[in-house]
């Protein structure tokens, strides 16, 4: 068993219903290293929105596949923890392209997990037809098998983000993606305890959600049986907000912020 294989197995095992994996999203080498050194952190996840934005690019195809893999390699190479990469839609228009790009990501970057979206464009709607979206998940699994790594696939369901009333379709997609080879379903739109509980009951596998101010609290998500929580571009927003506040205070000749002395080294 290779080190990469072992990390993939470990990452999968960390998705435990009721004791969710908390992944604070990162976007480059230094954020990966700093987060990896925080007490209790056991795995990392990138956020494509942040990876693109810090390069002055839009999310949703701002990077091409070569750039996305290069960015992933920088993040993975900065730490010893398992890293899962937000791989957007696989940077390919068809399933065959998804398969090859996922294989490349694994081999060239060392990643052991991915997020895979089911929306067609940068917005959350429209989505690929359910059969096509499931085929793309299956292609990602085939790409992982080609690379010889049990990649952890977190398949995103964007349905409720586009139409909050389309519950049955969202659940059908979630189960189709699991049947196609996903390990976890990244279910967007679960904004209440009731919706989280319904998803846990109706989806035949593990559930991943996004956390944000006003969402179901982390401890309650654990009690409900969620397996993973991430924060997407919110962690970049958190960082930028702190920087802006500090810049405002310094410009006004205020006190030096204590965090100005934060020690870091790549």
Automatic annotation (TrEMBL):
Query: What are the UniProt keywords, alphabetically?
Result: Lyase
Give a Pfam family name.
PEP_mutase
Molecular-function GO terms, alphabetical: lyase activity
Q: Does the keyword Lyase apply?
A: yes
InterPro entries in alphabetical order? ICL/PEPM (IPR039556), Pyrv/PenolPyrv_kinase-like_dom (IPR015813), Pyrv_kinase-like_dom_sf (IPR040442)
Give the superkingdom in one word: Bacteria
PANTHER family given for it? CARBOXYPHOSPHONOENOLPYRUVATE PHOSPHONOMUTASE-LIKE PROTEIN (AFU_ORTHOLOGUE AFUA_5G07230), PHOSPHOENOLPYRUVATE CARBOXYLASE
Name under which the protein is recorded:
2-methylisocitrate lyase-like PEP mutase family enzyme
According to its UniProt entry, this protein's organism is Plantibacter flavus
């Amino acid at each position: 068993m290779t080190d990469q294989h072992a990390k993939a197995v470990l990452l999968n095992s960390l998705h435990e219903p009721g004791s969710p994996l908390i992944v604070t999203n990162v976007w480059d080498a230094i954020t990966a290293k700093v987060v990896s050194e925080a007490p209790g952190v056991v795995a990392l996840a990138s956020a494509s929105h942040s990876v693109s934005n810090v390069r002055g690019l839009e999310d949703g195809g701002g990077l091409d596949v070569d750039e996305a893999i290069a960015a992933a390699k920088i993040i993975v190479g900065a730490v010893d923890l398992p890293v899962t990469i937000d791989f957007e839609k696989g940077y390919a228009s068809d399933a065959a392209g998804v398969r090859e790009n996922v294989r490349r990501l694994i081999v060239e970057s060392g990643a052991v997990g991915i997020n895979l979206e089911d929306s067609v464009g940068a917005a959350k709607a429209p989505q690929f037809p359910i059969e096509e979206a499931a085929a793309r998940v299956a292609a990602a699994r085939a790409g992982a098998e080609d690379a010889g790594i049990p990649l952890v696939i977190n398949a995103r369901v964007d349905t409720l983000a586009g139409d909050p009333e389309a519950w049955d379709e969202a659940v059908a997609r979630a189960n189709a993606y699991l049947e196609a080879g996903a390990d976890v379903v990244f279910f967007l739109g679960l904004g209440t305890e009731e919706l989280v509980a319904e998803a846990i009951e109706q989806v035949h596998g593990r559930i991943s959600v996004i956390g944000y101010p006003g969402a179901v609290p982390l401890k309650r998500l654990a009690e409900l049986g969620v397996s993973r929580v991430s924060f997407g571009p919110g962690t970049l927003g958190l960082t930028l907000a702190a920087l802006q506040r500090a810049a405002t205070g310094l410009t006004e000749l205020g006190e030096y912020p204590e965090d100005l002395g934060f020690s870091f080294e790549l």
